Amino acid sequence: MPSLNLIISPVEIEKRKALDFRAGDTLRVTQKIKEGDKVRLQAFEGLVLGRKHGAEPGATFTLRKVIGGVGVERIFPLYSPEVEKIEIKSRSKFKRSKLYYLRDRAAREIRKKMKTIKAEAKIKLKPEVPAA
């Protein structure tokens, strides 16, 4: 009797399984976006914060990038047919598997910048008194 375990998928599962990326790497994910009748491709490039469920069918990974001072995170399924391609842009070494602490670190840096901007604004607002 023939096997009933057929894999019918538009995704090249073996290539996706072989992708060797981890937390700290920079990826560019090209995703299909459907708008009405048209389908277009949109790229999202960011830092990998973490990867969940390894190479299982439900595997996901989280990317983070900062746009205009606002952090944006997206969770992508590894084997989704909506994900056209995944490119590894750069690699880095981290000793952690999840980099969620980067969220707080980025927020702290933004708060520091805001404090310096406010301090500079206060200095400019003070009127200069001419010496008599």
Strand content: 35-45%
Question: What is the ordering of alpha helices and beta strands?
Answer: HEEEEEH
What is the third-level CATH name, the topology of the domain at 13-99?
SH3 type barrels
CATH C-level class of the domain at 13-99 is Mainly Beta
- The tally of strands reads 5
Structure report:
By secondary structure, the chain is of the alpha+beta class. The chain has a domain at 13-99: SH3 type barrels (Roll). Helix content is 23%, strand content 37%. It is built from two helices and five strands; from the N terminus they run αβββββα. The protein has helices at residues 13-18, 101-125, and strands at residues 26-35, 38-52, 60-67, 70-77, 83-90. It has a five-stranded antiparallel sheet, with helices on one face. β3 (60-67) and β4 (70-77) form a beta hairpin. It is elongated, with a radius of gyration of 23 Å. The model has no long low-confidence stretch (mean pLDDT 85).
